[in-house]
Amino acid sequence: MDVTRFSIPVETAAPGGETNxxxxxxxxxVLVDPADRTDELDELVEARGVEHIVLTHTHPDHxxxxxxxxxxxxxxxxxxxxxxxxxxxxxxxEPDRLLWPGSEISIGDESDRTETITVxxxxxxxxDHVALVVSDGGPVVCGDCAIRDGSVVxxxxxxxxxxxxxxxxxLWAIDPPELLPGHxxxxxxxxxxxxxLLEHRMRRERRVREAVDAGxxxxxxxxxxxxxxxxxxxxxxxxxxxxxxxxxxxxxxxxVWDGERxxxxxx
Length: 267
Fold this sequence. Notes:
The chain contains seven helices and 13 strands. By secondary structure, it is α/β, with parallel strands linked by helices. It folds into two domains: about 5-190, 4-Layer Sandwich (Metallo-beta-lactamase, Chain A), CATH 3.60.15; about 200-265, Arc Repressor Mutant, subunit A. The strands form three sheets. Strands 1-2-3-4-5-6 form a six-stranded mixed beta sheet, with helices on one face. It has a five-stranded mixed beta sheet with strand order 7-8-9-10-11, with no helix packed on it. It is elongated and about 60 Å long.
């Protein structure tokens, strides 16, 4: 199935300041994550015809063009069935249909629907995050689950670290030929990228736990120990990330965390 990527300039914390939108299929097509309207995307949407609009998640840097393209194409607008209010708030639109893990979105006429996109549950970066498998054994549109260079923000309270790491392992097990991310270039060695992201998270988690074991209690104290780099400009993101790691460690019984102070778990 044909997949076309559009890098759209938007206000985003992601490196490069762009979000990837995707058109999947040809006449008709599925539009994924229209972050904003652009002339180039307008032209191809008009040429191909869009039958469905789907979001990997409803963060602001992924939804800016939803209202315009929904009105322009009369496409079916899909929302995660567990997060309908969040969808309405983010897009200003009512969904036409609801999706959930395992849903299949078919493309084409009723008499010839041979192309399908399968929805995967992929929470962590966001609670409503899904990934999309393009045809059987095809690439996966992974949104903000993965990025080729750097790391993905998983910050509490919106992000959930335990879920995110499970999502990375799920994608690793699927082993798609490519990952099509929400930001940056296509990931053509998915398992290598997913292993790198998992190792990054496990390394940060070790440093958070070591900080707590060494006596750091508050977020600020743990932050200073868990990060070696200069946090100028990204301190709030780092703080949210540390909180997400602490919540994961607390659920697993490896630290005590009450939302304000941390302490080592009892042996």
